[in-house]
Amino acid sequence: MKKLGTLLLLLAIIWAAPVHAQQDSLRNLDINLENYEYPFPVSYLSFDTQGERLKMAYMDIEPDKPNGRNIMLLHGKNFNGAYWEQTARALSALGFRVIMPDQIGFGKSSKPLHFQYSFHELAAHTREILDTLGINKTIVLGHSMGGMLATRFTLMYPERIEKLVLVNPLGLEDYKLKVPYQPIDKWYLTELKSNVTSIKNYQLTSYYDGKWKENYTRWANLLAGWTLNKEYPRIAWNAALTYDMIYTQPVCYEFGKIAAPTLLIIGQRDRSAVGKNLAPESLRATLGNFPELGKATQARIKGSKLVPLDNIGHLPHIEDFDRFFTALKPFIIP
């Protein structure tokens, strides 16, 4: 009987592996990722805005041993809530309730046909999720574009913020000062050309400094799978609109207004900047200097703490989770 149990366990492991591999392999993904399974159960908030009925997806993870606190994780532009899986499990093990929204235009949330994107509106709908869940105060952690959204959320709803964490956020500088304006149509045409090769090459050079690890492939395939779908032009249009939002709605001038305890986790190898390749060659190298931008931002946010992570790029929680979490944990649990 014991041998039978061991055999069944081994078979379960063998059968599970191909399922997971197939889940993360390159394949046609539909517009709202209905054929892609997230690591935790997904709920939806529905609302009417700008003449459309939209749905905003989110995951809400209740810990086994609650510590009475919660944290909201805001994703970057080329990602969705699923890439927080390891972070969410570690936070849940510490007793935190973890909320992970997919912003409108991303992941399992609606991809509107006509929508004027603004960080203000995204923040307002994100607050609605907290209202729905009965959460009055939270730690907000934002990565990349999510860092810009976390900043706007903190500025709009300071009474809802326990602490703010910014992980290699975009918007530490005003891209308009160095990158020529690009019509949305141009961003759109660029997005339409995306495929698995261009996506992987972009992530390889922009995120990982030319060093690819197998666990990065799933995040490239998650984007590339959309390019195989007939509705990809709609996704590309939403991506173009969010590029315009990041470019035209800087938050860097308002850091001095943030009163919440703030932690900046900055991978020092990062040189990400929206439209960097479009800037004049003489200015290109000055964009996305995260080591300097991190220091400047810390100086603007009164009482903030900066944790620089040497030899880490744009995605600390993906590239080196242990170092990322070692930086995060003492700030959220003093």
Automatic annotation (TrEMBL):
InterPro entries: AB_hydrolase_1, AB_hydrolase_fold, AB_hydrolase_sf, Epox_hydrolase-like. Residues 71-271 form the AB hydrolase-1 domain. Residues 1-21 form the signal peptide. Transmembrane segments: none annotated. One of its GO terms (molecular function) is hydrolase activity. Keywords: Hydrolase, Signal. This is Alpha/beta hydrolase. It comes from Dyadobacter sandarakinus.
